[in-house]
């Protein structure tokens, strides 16, 4: 039974004998995990038409009838199936009526996959058939995995009746080719009128028929022919049946009498159909089409060019058939008959051909004029316009002959067939330079031909143009004319032009390269792409080289607010008359920050130093630069922030720049204080520039003083009680880095106990403890003297000083 997770609870309810139930552990939960995944079809019946399509049959696992998930789904499940058919006409036959598209007969569901599909190809044939069925069954014994087989596990697929399985009844088409004539004097029984059962012949069918006069004669039919009606029966498998007529032989002279014999569609029994009076069937006079497609082509050879077209007459080949067609040449672009161009084909636009009786294939060739120009990408459009019977006039208007699917054919003119349309690849000017390192340089100018059929020679010329055309000679560029050859099938070549070097100063020189003509009529020059300008850029300094004379090369220094004047004076042997305005004053005002922009020099804006110790003094130097102008005397102030720590000196000052001075230094010293400190950071700020100067962007610098004055101190206990004639021992510790040696001085200091009275052995100033590299601990010992004098507690002190 397919089930999802089920939870059961076992709980202790009561106990006897004095025991108690632990309420925190009185229940157990049992979970039965989901199991028995169902495997089944979604539905058990499929009714499909006989069409060329694929039937898809879903198979599901792990879903109930409503589509909800149930049962296990975390493991692989597989099941096999079998296709069941029979041997009767009611059973579809595998590989004839349907095809199993699976590579094998095992359906596999990977974990968490809930649906798979079986696919069967329904074969569309032309055989009349009644309803046919086959079954697909899931096999319980082949089920693998945590799954159960549920219904529906069998699917029945029924292919609907098709292709007129019970037949289509109609008079034999031979009867329509001529009027049926019965000679009363020689025929007593006439059985040549037959009804044909086309299509399928399944089952027993019947149809009523009736005979009526086809004239104004009011007398009963039975006076001449009996019976006047009847029922025509077809047994299963029977395709032809005759209508028996008895001719009444009387002695009355009579004219020919016309009768109409009909089968009645509404009287049909057994599922058959009655067709309309037959015109012609199965395209008895032919189905005309372009076929095969690969035989429709443009043929080109040195001797001739033509359209080679192949027409097929499918179906029947009775009678001669005349086909009317049109053939148009349409230049490259939209394939529109209104764009058609005359003078290409050697035939008229519209023409015809005859399909003789019994002939199934006709090939025709439409010649192309030898002098016609075929453009690359153009089309030949051939259209079948009308078709008619020539030597047969059927009594009933025929359906055929008629045109098939391919009634129009468009043949594109490909490059290998097209005539050449030759031109430059661009019409833009080509810029050339006179060679500098070589005496001459060859420039290749590409030519392109659209359409590569046949050989062509192109003649070209090179002519100077522009304002200085007379200056261009063969010493500059050449040759001035020539030709290039396109071989058959070749689409690209080049014109080679040589540019020559000289030492003559020249302006821009322009020459025009033109395509003049082609040696064959069916090759043309491409409009708009027959010329290109070649421009040799000016060379060898045609305008001369200008520079200041040696006497005027300076350098010149412009001062602030300098005054100049321009004076007109007479020149030459004869004195000129001057007016009153002969002097113009010119004052060059100060500009472009003439007094400078003051800022820190870009390098070393952050300086790190040690704290000064004893005779070792450390300082940081900062460069201050005066950019742009250096005119005049200017000042700039600077301060250190913070300025109250007494760690650096000085903390503010003013820098003076004299005229033309542009670089000064700020020097700041670190001060000793014997105070343990981490790294300290100070900011030096430039401010208050005077004298017209400005402060630049780099107005701050940084000073860092490394961590210093690692402490040296007494270890606990700080107070030691000792008796006379004993030693007082103290331990001195060193913090911080031990990478370098250091020292500290110590001395005793009197309290109530004094060295002068002989209480202890004094340590004078200058005694030193030395901490070697790696050492963090040293000891100090002071001896207490025995004096036999009664005394109370007397303290004295030991001090540390001058650490390094």
From TrEMBL:
It comes from the Eukaryota. GO terms for cellular component: cytoplasm; membrane; stereocilium. The keyword Repeat applies. GO terms for molecular function: adenylate cyclase inhibitor activity; G protein-coupled receptor activity; G-protein alpha-subunit binding. InterPro entries: ADGRV1 (IPR026919), CalX-like_sf (IPR038081), Calx_beta (IPR003644). Residues 28-139, 703-801 form the Calx-beta domain. Keywords: Calcium, Repeat, Signal. The keyword Iron-sulfur does not apply. One of its GO terms (biological process) is cellular response to calcium ion. It holds the Pfam family Calx-beta. This is Calx-beta domain-containing protein. It comes from Cervus elaphus hippelaphus.
